[in-house]
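For this section, I looked closely at a protein sequence along with its fold in token form, which I now present.
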Amino acid sequence: MATNNVKLLGKHGCPFVNRVQMALGLKSIDHEFMEEDPFKKSELLLKSNPVNKKVPVLFHAEKPICESLLIVQYIDEAWPNNPSILPSDPYERATARFWAAYIDEKWFPLTAEYRKSEGEEAKAAARDKLVEGTLLLEEAFISCSKAKSFSSGDNIGYLDIILGSLLGWLKAEEILTSTKIFDETKIPQLVAWTERFCANKAVKDFIPESEKLAEGFKKFEMLKAASNTN
């Protein structure tokens, strides 16, 4: 859908920005991408998102919408053309929103907690929490998908976008920790889903390369450590 009044303020490689790009791509919405410097917040960002001061921010008809979960929902409602992103059934919509919040607030932070944990005991405890949370996601996917290809059925939906936008960083975490987080022996349904999701032409270009993410993270950590010793 061609439109000239949609702009996205974000940072390339940011998973929360990527999920908005995925939603726009699924809806075929043309938009202008405005790159934000994460180390020097622009006046536009501070004005449009004064509370959290973070990207992404979607501008539709000059009006800002903040927070990626809300932006994806907004896109689905503002452009109700197919494909739909959120389920039409109220219970299924509520369920998708619940698990999306779980992914962002509970599950994904566990990957960083595991990477940062020090000591054998702390590392084991953090890994157990991550494995437990990932098994919950496998059960949620099986329940929501009803034996279909994606969480909402035959097409990519809300929960797919929210989790799928994190896949590049998830694989980067696997590289950084030398740990298989998405283990096909434990969560075969989700592992099969990742292959279908990453192959979809509407979203695959918005999944950053994990090797580059891991290398960039290592360089950032080295620079931070060097600055702390000076």
